[in-house]
Amino acid sequence: xxxRAVFAGALLSSALVSGGWYVERGLTQETSAATDGGQLFxxxxxxxxxxxxxxxxxxxxxxxxxxGLVDELHDPHSEYLSPALYARLNESTxxxxxxxxxxxxxxxxxxxxxxxxxxxxxxxAGIRPGDRIADVNGQSMRGVAIExxxxxxxxxxxxxxxxxxxxxxxxxxxxxxxxxxxIDVHSAQHAMLLPNGxxxxxxxxxxxxxxxxxxxxxxxxxxxGMRSLIxxxxxxxxxxxxxxxxxxxxxxxxGQRIVxxxxxxxxxxxxxxxxxxxxxxxxxxxxxxxSNTASAAEIVSGAxxxxxxxxxxxxxxxxxxxxxxxxPLPSGGAVKLTxxxxxxxxxxxxxxxxxxxxxxxADTTGxxxxxxxxxxxxxxxxxxxxxxxxVPVGGDSLTVRLLSPLTAPQLLADSAVAIAxxxxxxxxxxxxxxxxxxxxxxxxx
Length: 445
What we know:
By secondary structure, the protein is α+β, with helices and mostly antiparallel strands. The protein contains 14 helices and 21 strands. A 6-stranded mixed β-sheet has the order 10-11-12-15-16-21, with helices on both faces.
């Protein structure tokens, strides 16, 4: 039994130290607490292995123990990945996979549709942003790791999948049967030139090609006569940190800080700064955000706001300001752990503890800490990115159109035209754009 305890301790230790980030001291110092902990695990393992009503193999018990250890961190972004889930991890950022065409995330323990992708089976069937996926093919998705959800939604081309969805305001759950097909996600969508020389680009996600796609879209619009740009990051759940840094780099000057990552250990504490001269230094920019703008999209918004490079419009963003590292294990699986938090150039923490209320109406009423941009403008902290002009959902028809999920190119074009008309972004400088944005602003707290 002692040998089995040693093996269990080695397995669980490897899951923690494979990234070189934790408990080196604990491996070199014998303490009574460590010994008691090992003995406790040994005793519980022995009792379950020999006396539980169902017979479970040792390998299953060890795997469940490892997963349970990470689950007890109570961090929705940290999890044990089985070899099958780890093998699928790269699919979420490669831009190509077979599935139903949805961006999903865990929101308050629920698998929530952040955005159905244009042209995919989900949007064609009527699935909407904010829908909660209760089960897939009869299997409950409540509290399930996001990688497991993606595995359930994806499959072979032509296969079907049945979803039960809970929708706010619907009297009963909705059922959808969808046919999977290959999804080729382009990050930059709906690039168009609007009246008065206003360019518009929606960036749906930060995948491997986001920086390149956005650069091409802005170049094309510039050649067509664009004099100002609306960059739409609403419903953008984030993605690759490197692509977020790369997108911000397109609009900033060399040496300007983009984001700082601060963690427990020096190897995960790092400053990311601009390296290349910006391509369009005289181009006024407005960035649209909402409560579903998260992660890398918040890094871009925060950097452009802190350096006075863009005016931010919409509602306070989600506040997903933590970085996860994936540590491969010899077993073929991996452990994904939160290892750092992100901070904007002015020092604001992007991370926001989840409130008890619905996160989609999470603009808080309490006072927020204040920070200064490069030009001395006041911006607000407290988690997420608070826009320069808060435009809450509701009120007049314009604000509803500004913040409503966009499900068709014409609605998207109408929304962008309305923004351009209110801000008059076809002329003037970035400074003038900040001044004009004040006319939309509700009091910021």
